[in-house]
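Archive transcription. Copying these from loose printouts into the bound notebook so they stop getting lost. Printout 1 of 2:
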Amino acid sequence: MHRQIASFALALLPMLAAAEPLPRFPPGAVWHQDISQAPLAADSASMIATLQGLGGWGNGNRLQIDFSMHVLHAAADAPTAPVAVGGDTPDCDAGFPFPLPPGGALEGESGYTCTGGGDCHLLVVQGSTLYEAYAANVAGGTLQSACALKWDLARAYPRHGRGEQCTSADAAGFPIAPLLFNADEVAAAVASGGDLGHAIRFILPNARMAAQAYVHPATHAGAPSGPAASVPYGARLRLKAGFDLGGYNPAAQVLLRTMQRYGMVLSDGGNIALTGESDRYTTKKWVELGITSLVFVTGTPAPKVTDFEVVETGPRLPRTNDCVRTPDDFLFIDSYDY
């Protein structure tokens, strides 16, 4: 029988979470595909122009970084809480035990109670399973959530992920934790002179995304309300090869090179464009690397929407919310021909 633990009891436990690598999918997964030479969408230029005309990045057209998400790592015997019924079905799941490692916390919080009115994402890795929840809150021994689900980290999902028209803890239907970046992996890439080896997550205000449509690898669209000529959910943006990296420190250059080689995928709605993991549990700290929330705002040149282009990933699909889950034995990789 799974052990259950209430949020007030968790607050009494010592800080036991430790630094671990961010979770990753197998090399064949779409997130690891090099798109530096991929063809552009036919309407790339017009989508970028439309987005720029709508105001560009959120929060004053700034390519800012949010460091409020935590990625927790749970031992096999970590306490668990059952997921209460809630959220979209069959997109999201309920009733399964969700691991809650001692000393963990929700996005933007110091523990497992959602108090600040934010998204309160909960991201936990246990073995080869990634558990993610949106609008999470632990109370009365259960995990309340607007959407909770599991990802199999040993699996290279097809282009339609967990299922066409299905959402996840991110509105695009994407996993969250594997698209983040943290101080440890950036430091390792600085040492090797490389990049992160995977696409990264970015978000835009709803009014700047094309309404009610998405492109693969997204499988859903949240509440976009912008003109059809703008970028849709799931769009993969690539930093132009000619962008001058010389005005940035080595750690920032790692992130910029990653945007050039693997791009960034439009995952959710909001104002702060990029999402890095907090350094609460990492060995390296962001201050050591010279990375702040405003590194791409005060740097020269500051990356503008017009410094990016949209890679071709397939046709737009209208949002219907008629989620059809991918069967668990559906394991082939259906990669778009870049």
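Printout 2 of 2:
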Amino acid sequence: MDAAFIEEMKDLLYKERKTILDRMNGDNSSFKEEGATGRGDSVDLASDEGAFKKMEALNAMDAKRLTAVENALKRISENRYGICLKCGKKIPEDRLRAMPSAVLCIDCKNEEERRRSAN
């Protein structure tokens, strides 16, 4: 992979990281502000609990995405970016453009998904 492509991916990954962190910080702060009042009846509290569980699930997904982005940036710094972690082949640039934090080539990803669906 050429240096221009690597820089393009690095920029995408940094932007994605910022988006995730901004969303996580924004969601948490607005929920804390609303929940800090402690006011409301049981319906409000139940609604708040549902919102909290939804926020918790979204934050877990964001945390997982953030880890994937951080790992991709680390692979770039170690000159290992774009190499399938399973078979060692190059991951196609089109796949990396679609998913900059991809760790598997298309063949290995398809094999992994077939194995999961069989279980």
